[in-house]
Task: structure prediction
Amino acid sequence: MGGLSNKNTLLEELKILIKIILVRILSIICVLFFLTYSVHGQRQSVLKTNKDAYGYNLVPQEKVFIHYNTSLLFSGEYFYYRVYCFDAESNVLSTISKIAYLVLLDEDQKAIFKHKIELENGLGQGDFFVPVSIPSGNYKLVGYTQWMLNETSRFFQADVSIVNPYQGNQSKILFADLHKDSLGNTNTQVLRGSELKAVEENTKTGLKLFADSKSYAKRSLVKLSIETPELNTVGGNYSLSVRKMDAFAKALRVRAKDFSTLYNDGVKSSTKSVGASVFLPEMRGELIYGKIVAKEASFSVSKQSVGLSIPGKTSDVKVVLTDDTGNFVFNLNNRNDNDEVLIQVLGKDKENYTIQIFEIPEVETPNLEFYQFKISPSLKDKIVKRSIRNQIDNVFYSVKPDTLQALTNAFPFHGTEIETYNLDEYTRFGTVKETIVEVVESVWTKKDENGNEVFAVRGYYPTVKKQSFLPLLVVDGILVQDQESIINYDARKIKSISFIRDRYYLGTQIFEGVVIIETIAGDYLNSINNSATITLSSLQASKKYFRQKYNDDGSYKRIPDFRNQLLWQPNVEMTKGKSSIEFYTSDVTGDFEICLEGFKDNGFPISIKTYITVE
Result:
């Protein structure tokens, strides 16, 4: 029997591997097809040829699940979430989209926040701090990828309610009958029933989740165990939340097992033909859509070069052409933590255009039904107590902060074949031009055909006489067109001058080498008056969330601890046999729910709970 079990396990793992490989092959094929698309309208593209339509129809549709920590938030609390993006046909994690979107909508369908989440192999995470500017009310959480906008009925939806006691108007959540209340059932009898249900869930999934005790004192260590008795249950992706059970009746959270029931049918995008407008999957990274608008009708918006650059040491420079109506799209796969980009029309007529950006794809949700969370004056004491504790906890946030996970160092767009002069190692001169003449070899200045002074780089190969390509000039990561302004720039502000002698190609633009200048302060962008600087929505950064510990040194002894959320771990690493996770209780007493959500590698949902009491 043991040999048969191992054989079945290997067959299951082989099936999963084949699914993943097929999805990745399809992704690569479809990227090649999508390279020929033209932009049409806000973030949509036109299928211009039969090859485009064929490529579009090959790509599987996606579905998104969000594991979130609670459906009821107070001002001053954090909303945590983990994103799982699946291939809707195979039910394995999708490698198609690299960006997901999360929007919180009010009952008027106005967005309270819009988050852009970077996906790695179908997984992402984020959080949102609820400020006092958001009124009490009932809200809808909507999750999707741009590719899913082609099938508008497939969005992830969940109800979230917010209580903001700092604003006077509570009409959105106040009972008309003030004698009613919204107290939940958290008595011992109900909790016992929940425990029995949790044990039943554990048995069905093959995973066992349990703590080393049922009750704990304040600020004491909890040892949580996850057992995986079957060999084929360990593979998967999971997230874990430990949170105090609310004393209010609230919307039920959408769990992984609910999601699999709601979205259990394989879904493919509707077949499209040539001429159709579609949303493209963000396969290679974040897509930035925009449009140039001519200030006068005599200036054409067609086939104009548009450049994008990112301030900073590790930068990226891209050049694309507009389509016939002035639309353009950049693929941004190396933004890191910088939200500021510079987008500019290139060429001598650049001042004759303005630029519009269509950044986040808007979701259409006309038929949303909202959960109606309600309160009454009888809950005043409970609301005040929780709000005061939130304020106290936030005051001490600086001594227990979250940390961003280290970003992977990316190579600059220009690669590594570069010669650099650090100017502190040489005699300083007044201007960049003087420094070029006296210090930097293989770079000089000359007059162009319009009489402007520009840089020149001695290339490895002779230049054809009639060609007049300029070098690409980048200062602090910014593509600079007015080269004369840099030639006369104060060299005492310059840290280094680098150059590349190879001919360089960006889009349809050809550059005779590259000149890269880095200032000492790294603030060249601040010194120029440029309205083309665009601040993009931040990508949600992966964090290592603070985990409270109480050691013998007593370092936190005098610091209040009113955490309702004892633990949020968006990425639970599982090992065969038994995995252990430790966390500490706070000064908050009551019943706490421990919830593990996620999916096995084959897409099978895992939703299991257990409970503890803090006395």
Summary: Residues 25 and 95 are 10 Å apart (CA to CA). Residues 31-37, 185-193 have pLDDT under 50 and may be disordered. Residues 419-539 form a domain with the Ferric Hydroxamate Uptake Protein; Chain A, domain 1 fold (CATH 2.170.130). The chain has two domains: 62-267+363-405+542-614, 419-539.
